[in-house]
Design brief:
With about 140 residues, the chain is mainly α. It contains seven helices and no strands. The radius of gyration is 16 Å and the shape is elongated.
Length: about 140
């Protein structure tokens, strides 16, 4: 089994996984990106389509990710994927990840409002594209 690099470990610590066992992180680190990747995919789709409906649907998912230490999309892994991969459940998310979800939920609301009010330029360029880029960074780096 390969070990986590010091760079990856530092990034996981910044996300609030400071007290998580190294072995558990080694087995689940890549799956910790799943929730942010799915959110990014949906936010990007909502932006491309200028669909405030898709963005509003994503708001409570992001808000629940901010409130609870398990993101709703983590449940896809915890109750499905992990049984296929033979890996353990994901560790609980720390405050930094939950803060990001809270910020994302507000960002989604404002972006959806821009599309709903017909301010598509602001919705596309300033809010939607930047939200998608930030989400891509979080889910890939």
């Amino acid at each position: 089994m390969k070990t986590i690099s010091t760079v990856t470990r530092r990034r996981l610590d910044l996300q609030g996984f400071t007290d998580v066992n190294e072995n558990l992180l080694n087995q689940t680190a890549s799956w910790l990106r799943l929730a942010f990747a799915l959110c990014t995919l949906l936010a990007g789709l909502g932006t491309i389509l200028a669909s405030y409906t898709i963005l509003y649907i994503l708001v409570p998912i992001a808000a629940l990710g901010a409130i609870f230490n398990t993101h709703p999309f983590d449940l896809i892994y915890n109750y499905g994927i992990r049984y296929i991969t033979g890996t353990p459940a994901l560790p609980k998310r720390g405050a930094p990840g939950r803060f990001a979800c809270g910020l994302g939920s507000v960002w989604l609301i404002v972006t959806a409002l821009m599309f709903q009010m017909g301010n598509n330029t602001i919705g596309y360029i300033i809010l939607g594209a930047s939200l998608t880029i930030v989400g891509l960074l979080v889910s890939t780096i």
